[in-house]
């Protein structure tokens, strides 16, 4: 069986690739990327590295040739993601790939007001619509994203957010990769939805308390509305559409759309997922540098 991973030079792709290479022979692994040179070390380890660009659909059938299972890692291009994913799915079907696993999002397709929900839902539907076997790995919000927020809070003494009293179960990128590797290399995961989350729901007030405990710095929690959150993001240089998309995560958390806790990481990997506190502790030096 040949396994392929798209976006293999990215953070999640590389982590997943390394875990897959620990489980199966390198000759069974195909790594697809726009930047083959970035994966020279994994090519040296025996993996096949192929050029593939979702914005160049003609590059994809050859990239997917001979592949049985494909991990389609979601791109981060707002406004064009569905077109990119659809090109990859069409190429996978053309190449004879039998099973596509996709890194989706919680409550994909139904999680309004979360902007990215539409893209994830449309991608899941496109895979099913091509008659392919499918697995939706609906990843929660990365715990690592809160490290940067925590560092800013330590530096300023304020944790500014538009999450209200809402909570979500932040998940580490490492656990997302472990779950993906397990589903890619195991059996019985066809036509299944897995919610890939951390072990517990966390509010911004709880995050501030964790950061205060770790660093000894008192953090005040400052709640703002969605418009102000969007304005703050545009003020630091984000385009308006991207700012609105990022602010919508806070909206979705506040409205309970992302208050999902699942055992699926442990079910797939055999280990309990890392908590947000575990991730913050692992990045303690980055937080302490800002004190």
Order of helices and strands: EHEHEHEHEHEHEEHEEHEHHHHH
Supply the number of helical segments.
13
Overall number of strands = 11
Would you identify the CATH architecture of the largest domain? 3-Layer(aba) Sandwich
- Rg, nearest Å: 19 Å
Largest sheet, spatial ordering of strands: 3-2-1-4-5-6-9
Q: Which parts are unreliable, with pLDDT below 50 for 5 consecutive residues or more?
A: none
Helix fraction, binned, reads: 40-55%
Class from helix and strand fractions: alpha/beta
Number of domains: 2
Q: Main β-sheet, in a few words?
A: 7 strands, parallel
CATH superfamily of the largest domain: NAD(P)-binding Rossmann-like Domain
First-residue to last-residue Cα separation: 51 Å
Task: Write down the overall geometry.
Answer: globular
Strand content: 15-25%
Averaging pLDDT over every residue, what do you get? 95
* CATH class identity of the largest domain: Alpha Beta
CATH topology of the largest domain: Rossmann fold
């Amino acid at each position: 069986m040949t396994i392929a991973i798209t976006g293999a030079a990215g953070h999640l792709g590389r982590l997943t690739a390394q875990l897959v290479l620990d489980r199966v022979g390198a000759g069974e692994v195909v790594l697809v990327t726009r930047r083959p040179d970035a994966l020279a070390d994994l090519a040296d380890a025996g993996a096949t590295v192929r050029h593939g660009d979702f914005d160049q659909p003609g590059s994809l059938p050859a990239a997917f040739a001979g592949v049985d299972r494909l991990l389609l890692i979601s791109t981060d291009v707002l406004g064009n993601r569905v077109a990119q994913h659809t090109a990859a799915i069409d190429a996978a079907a053309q190449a004879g790939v039998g099973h596509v696993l996709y890194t989706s999002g919680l409550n994909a397709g139904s999680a309004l007001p979360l902007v990215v929900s539409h893209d994830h839902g449309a991608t899941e539907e496109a895979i099913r619509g091509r008659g392919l076997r499918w697995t939706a790995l609906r990843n929660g919000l990365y715990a690592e994203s809160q490290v940067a927020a925590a560092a800013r809070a330590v530096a300023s003494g304020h944790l500014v957010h538009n999450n209200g009293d809402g909570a979500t179960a932040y998940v580490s990128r490492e656990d997302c990769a472990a779950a993906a590797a397990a589903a890619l290399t195991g059996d019985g995961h066809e036509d299944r939805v897995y919610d890939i989350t951390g072990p517990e729901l966390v509010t911004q007030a709880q995050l501030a308390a964790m950061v205060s405990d770790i660093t000894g710095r008192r953090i005040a929690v400052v709640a703002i509305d969605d418009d102000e959150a969007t304005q703050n993001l545009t003020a630091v240089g984000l385009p308006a559409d991207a700012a609105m998309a990022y602010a919508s995560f806070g909206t979705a958390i506040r409205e309970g759309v992302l208050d999902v806790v699942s055992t699926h990481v442990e079910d797939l990997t055999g280990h309990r997922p890392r908590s947000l506190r575990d991730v913050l502790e692992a990045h303690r030096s980055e937080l302490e540098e800002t004190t």
